[in-house]
Amino acid sequence: MSEWTDPELVDRRERLLQILRGYGRLAVAYSGGVDSAVVAKAAQVALGDSAIAVTAVSDSLAQGELEEATELATRIGIAHRVIRTEEFADPNYLRNNSDRCYFCKSELYGRLEGLMGTLGVDAIASGANLDDQGDHRPGMKAAGEHNVKHPLQEAGLTKAHVRQLAKAWDLPTWDKPATPCLSSRIAYGEDVTPERVKMIDAAEGWLRQRGLRLLRVRYHKGDLARIEVPIEDLPRLADPEVRKDLIPAFREFGFKFVTLDLEGFRSGSLNTLIPLDGLRKQTVELAAR
Fold this sequence. Notes:
Shape: globular
Strand content: 5-15%
Number of strands: 7
Radius of gyration: 20 Å
Strand order of the largest sheet: 3-2-1-4
Largest sheet: 4 strands, parallel
Distance between the termini: 51 Å
Number of helices: 13
Helix content: 40-55%
């Protein structure tokens, strides 16, 4: 049975398409994740050749993500362009305070804004959904400074709504776990370096090769890896047969210590390390920019 028999889902789709038509020619900041993929698909449906998906590549992009994004863009039928961003050249990004994402998104949206004439577009759109408004997301401040549109938010769509649309459009990423940039795994205050994101990428790849899907490898001071997986997967990683391979593999990647977080996987767990006073100060500083 077609997913489009649900009138509420059809209404959400039409609301999103109508919003996108109001933007004119559009560039979608497209990572290949479920949110940006739904915006890209909707833009292709609403705008046809007047829509383009743009993927940013840097050291913080995990292996395989660009290839998956490219394949999915072809499946969607939207024009696709890849650009290089240079956030690793920005000391504000490298020092990795809790506003790191602001500088990353400023680099991305600044480059997209500068390419609008070349791309032949009138607006830039992100994949931010309604649920993103409630988290610590300094990148949203950068988006506002570059007049980036948030069609999913305008349409009142939550993450669950987005996944429903992705499934109805037969996008293979409809149930793909969120894949934030590799730099987001590094504890605030520890410098972001290409070497550290490569360590994380290799470690997460090793775990995925063994069938784990939802996971994070967090980097902490002293080259310590803190592995987060769902509670039900904890016994699997604690098994002696797995540990005897995991520990030397992680040490080969560059980690000196390997730990398993008994609290299990949770998105944004490093945000708990941000002192409240520091968060307030950085919020004020961002608002003043």
